[in-house]
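Note to self: user wants both folds in one dump. Writing first protein now.
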Amino acid sequence: MTTTEAPSKRTARAGNAPKQADVFVAFGITGDLARVMTFRSLYRLELRGLLDCPILGVAVDDWTLDQLKERARDSIVATGEELDEQVFARLCDRFAYVAGDFSDASTYEAVAEAIDGAENPVFYLEIPPFLFGTVVKGLADAGLTANARVVVEKPFGHDAASAGELADELHEHLDESQIYRIDHFLGKMGLEEILYLRFANTLLEPIWNRNYVESVQITMAEDFGVDDRGHFYDPVGALRDVVVNHIMQVVAVAAMEAPVGHDEDTLKNAQLQVFRAVADADPAHYVRGQYDGYLDVAGVAPGSTTETYAALRLQIDNWRWDGVPFFIRAGKCLKTTQTELRIVLKNPPRLGFKHGDRMPEPNQIVVKLDPTTGVRVILDAHRGDEQGAGRIDLDAEFAEQGGEGATPYEVLLEAAMRGDGMRFTRQDGVEEQWRIMQPLLDAPTPIQPYAPGSWGPEAGDKLVAGHGRWHGPWVTA
């Protein structure tokens, strides 16, 4: 299935502001995602006074309400939050619970009874994608989807074909405007900051193009391995896990044209135009790696060739970016944990600006996205501690400039409850992302080993040949 950027029903009703959710229903609330993310996010929303509706948990586990509350407490504390008992008590007062089989119509009858009177429900499906169709059909058959918003978790398919099939399942019962696809990168403060830095500052936008930019480098490095997630990770790998979704969102905001309006479809159309301009990824510019010891992880298939490191080059065939390579690398068990966007500018004419054998470092603009956020500008200037010129870094850590923003899931769940679809992905964009990466899935390159604590296989360094070297990442000591 291929969708277009034609106005959705939400756009058609632009004169009517989305209505605040009057109930939040989480399917799979006893699972790992809820334990790690959901309870903490709901607690922080309660703390900030942004929750204003009941919360219904639905799962197959035969739990009591007290057990659910205890799971919520343990989960919140385990994330490092300092629990305020009054805030937690208010949160617990919102809880209700329904146990049932997701394939049983009686489960949805019980849900309907539990939320009786709600007119604008939000259903959050923190469950495996193969259950999305089953749950949405159950909700539709129970008459619960007419005014509903349905939030679904990635992965949105495992290739181009399955992404379309999954969308078809959802579209049998839901309009595209009702579907909120979560990509937690779209909840990050740093991602939004890229757009603002570009389009709200005349200092940057004039140089944000092929005339001044030598290359764009995006790094998503993790210093930890798969650990106990072998059963999940091995069928997926780095390309499907983070590149086709998270990192492509960074590509979109880094490369898009300025949107001409403030509504969500205008923004998503601008991002879609970027995806459509990206040429199919070329396996000749793709490096796959696997860290030593991965095959010993529980749940990993014997002799697995799943990549834990992926590095690739993308080309955007449009007026702004023609000839500028976008280099991407992502991996586990690398030297550090850091996600960043780095714009590497072209070198100026050399003239007399040279000291000894040293050439100036290329000017760079860096936006840190994770685990902390910040902006760095790298320049060359005369320094008092050197004989002549040297590199200087102009750094702004967001934590020191007004504080870090809300956590991504906090942002996204609150946006879903408000009916703000700006931070969620649209199906046509999802399909384009899979189209770009499909050649790498169809013709994967040989796997190359690398040592934990390194920057991946040596071939990943050679990928940027002719365009300098990999820079960074910027890690705060």
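First done. Writing the second protein, which came from a different request thread.
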Amino acid sequence: MTESAILVTGASTGIGFATALLLAREGYIVFAGVRTENDAERLRAAHSNIRAVLVDVRRRSDVSAALTGIEQSDAPLFAVVNNAGIAVAGPLEYLPLDDFHRQFDVNVFGALAVTQAALPLLRRTRGRIIFMSSVSGQIAPPLLGPYAASKFALEAMADSMRMELAPFGIFVSVVQPGNVRTPIWEKGRREKEELAARMPAQARANYGDAIDNLVRLTEREEQTGIDPDVVARTVLTALRARRPRARYPVGDPPGWQRRMAALLPEHLRDRLITKSINRH
């Protein structure tokens, strides 16, 4: 299916950039969704097969314009890689609801809007849909409730859509990265102070130590996580598989460990997760 088109959202950095570049090198025409012209120019310069498009997945007009451009191109759309995502962190007791809405607007509603807009084109090619989930889509740690909730929702949405679209020959897969060296956590840390300013002082008093532990943990994981290219190659595997799997876990912890952790009694799982965060 080389010379077919693939839409990759959230392609400016990290997993999205690595995926767009790998697919372009493999011969696909890649429509790389970014939000700034600077990012668009950088992607266009990275490979001649990359056609950067300005799209904020929260804006229906952006999504519609992007898909119209793809439809009018000379390459049939074979797949959508829903990678655009943000990470909102904070104690749910005090988290402003606007931040929770923002988390779902990008990670869940944005992914669904892109997929809905792309499906008429994917029906023509009996194409593929990939959702970028996370280990947090299976196990929800403390203080990452908004992010984990969005990934749990994404997993459920993918399950339903996989069964709904199977009769039409359209495959739906979920990629579940573990710890990855990606800017998403650095961006989240930059927003921490702004978020803290909008929460009551009691939030810091009650959760300050736990928040500091989480920050240290994300800093460590950025240093020790797998390279985004590893995730990109998993995406390529899912796109080229004759019968793609429903889920592709990649990175640490391995998929079997995640499944085992999900089967543990809740009190034991809670204790293990909390101890892991506090240790760092």
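Dump finished. Worth passing along: The mean pLDDT is 90.
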